[in-house]
Amino acid sequence: MAVSTRRLQKELKDIQTQGTPVGIKLLSADDFQTWFLSIEVLGETQYEGEVFALKFRFDSSYPISSPAVQFVVDEKFQAPVHPHVYSNGHICASILGNEWSPVLSVIAVCVTLQSMLASCKKKERPPDNDRYVSHAPENPKKTQFLYHDDDV
């Protein structure tokens, strides 16, 4: 059994037995390749009352390498309007790239993104949204983001 499968089995068991933090729900985890979770930012924020879905894709090197994580954009869900979130759902967040650590979990990523949304001061897309979306790879992990703005 692959390390990624063992790790994901443990994370799924923890979610099922311990639950998830407030505002985070497991939508589906039918296999160890793709999971869907929802996040809601609670309290008085720019996103009050909005619910977003996240898609996690795992490869065989998880947790050594980060999962591919993006907001779901479909008939039911939209990506949040945020300076670090592109309209196609791709997220420019260092923990999904060069600051990934194998100690992070699916829930830790959700909590971090929940916090990123909660601290947002102004709803706006990244300045290069249209250019990026028109040329973006399907997998956000194939993008080399520049992480230079932590005070959004």
Itemize the secondary structure elements and their pairings.
Elements: H1 3-18, E1 24-28, E2 34-40, E3 51-57, E4 68-71, H2 106-118, H3 129-135
Antiparallel strand pairs: 1-2, 2-3, 3-4
Question: What key phrases describe this protein's structure?
Answer:
single chain, 152 residues, alpha+beta, Ubiquitin Conjugating Enzyme, 3 helices, 4 strands, globular
Global outline: globular
Share in helix: 10-25%
Helices and strands, in order, run as HEEEEHH
Q: Low-confidence parts lasting 5 or more residues at pLDDT below 50? A: none
- The CATH class turns out to be Alpha Beta
N-to-C CA distance: 41 Å
Instruction: Summarize the main sheet.
Output: 4 strands, antiparallel
Description:
- Residues 3-152 form the UBC core domain.
- Keywords: Ubl conjugation pathway.
- InterPro entries: Ub_conjugating_enzyme, UBC, UBQ-conjugating_enzyme/RWD.
- This is Ubiquitin-conjugating enzyme E2 2.
- The chain is an alpha+beta fold.
- The chain has helices spanning 3-18, 106-118, 129-135, and strands at residues 24-28, 34-40, 51-57, 68-71.
- It has one domain (3-142): Roll (Ubiquitin Conjugating Enzyme), CATH 3.10.110.10.
- 24% of the residues lie in helices and 15% in strands.
- It has a 4-stranded antiparallel sheet.
